[in-house]
Amino acid sequence: MDPAAILVVILGLFLALLITQVVRLEITALATIAALALTGLLTPGAAFSGFSSEAFVTIAAMLVLSAGVERSGVMDALASAFGRVGARSERRLLFAMLIPIAVMSAFLNNTPVVALMIPVTLALARKTGLPPSRMLLPVSYISILGGTCTLIGTSTNILVDSLHREHGGEGFGMFEFTGLGLLYLLVGGIYVLVVGPRVLPKRAALSELLPATGEGNFVTIVTVPPESVLAGKDLKSALRGADEVQVLEVVRDEVPHMRPDPEFVLAAGDVVLLEGSARAIHGLIERKGVEAGTALEDDRRVRISRVDLHIAESVVTPTSSFRHRRVEDLGLSRRFGVQVLALRRLGRQHQYNLRSLRIHAGDVLLIQGDPSSLRALQEDGDLLLVEGAERTLTKPRKAPIALGILVGVVALAAAGVAPVSVLGVAGAALMIVTGCLDTQEAVRALDVSVLLLIAASIPLGAAMEEVGLAANVAGFLAGIGSGAGIFVVVGTVYLVTSLLTAVISNNAAAVLLVPIALSISQQIGVDPKPLLVAIAFGASASFATPIGYQTNTLVMGPGGYAFKDYLRFGGPLSVLMWLTATALIPLFWPG
Fold it and tell me: What is the pLDDT of residues 67-95, one digit of tens each?
């Protein structure tokens, strides 16, 4: 069989599995590496070259550096400043958040930046009365735009730089992206501030219902059985004599009704989320004919026996090991003493048949446990607890050291003292040696799915060059822009990158398209840099779907977003940034 045909089959399966996610990303990556070697398209050494690439090492090191800064509390200190913002309007609040988020994202992995900002944003939403859905997607978009401003701001910039060097190019400097990145941020930021308040939905998230202080109050779930005297009564009548209890939510047929009106009529089978003192809730259960709800304790349902446990909202992160596993297989009760009350996905809340549901990235789990159990689960790193539990403890005394290490890496790399890969590894080691991170925390910071995807994409790109597929695709794209000038070629490359990123991932799109861009530059006789920058920015600026970029997935559950919200708000932004990049990239890097 023709090698090119074999590669097309492997590439097609690779893209199909990334899009459908029917198997774990890690399995897709490892299977791709094995297929490239077993079919003879690459030697075993070439198939495993992604693990030894400079890009792989640099991104791993930057993940550890970001974790060290986060753990030291530097980001908490910056984020806490938002709480002192006397915002009188939605746009003023968003503007106050824009610059610090952009600055943090320019030097740190933006996934932990957004993870930190979710609970901060939810607290601000509660304080200002704004729905979280008006704020969380702008936080994600601003972090993406901020990441384009430096070489280390996003993994796609690092990938493009490393691959350019591996092909004999000079690569990019630490701040070579900054001029374009700042203009990119300005244009995108103005769009977010002007358009966001007009088109974003006013949709309550589950976390908005949890009590702000929790002092003396607890949240629990009760059900209305068929024989209950409350069935058919409105809430005002049902709660008469139970003034200390508030109804936060009623779920009927998996559809949540948040903060229902007093006239809302209860029906048999309703699941009710209550907030109040333990004594008041217990009295309501005893007097009013409702039953304590049930929770999933690993593989079995149990009746909630205590109302003095804390309830927390947790988000399944894009890199969580819980993804694709059934709820009953997570072992949360056995490992942490935590029970699952409900799962919310794309606006629907599931209380029943929980045990057989498979977990997806962005799912929201409503969980219950004592504070120490919830903290232990938070430390484990598979779930991001955004409300209802204390955040991970930080090490404020290490903040100057962690910040100094990061600044040192950036300054030395900008001065050309050593490659950013070497400096990044040295900085990661210093984070451990100085106690900013322990070894376990450093290992946990390594995003296995992202790193394996990079390790598989790099040899896949090499195979495309080896069999001539990259040159053929490049010839087709070059033909589109033939005679039309560098602006059309840049715009075409950016558009293809952006569309591919929307359905797979930014890193995979960047790695697969770099060989094609290099081949285009050779065929039409231009400098490859403007095409490589188009790939870097096109792969980073993914706004139209929740799956194109990790931060978009992360805010989906807490913000209560549906797929259409990304298309409505992010679709026009993607077009705007495409036009901006097409106009500006050739001015910064003339072909």
Answer: 888 788 766 666 566 655 545 577 888 88
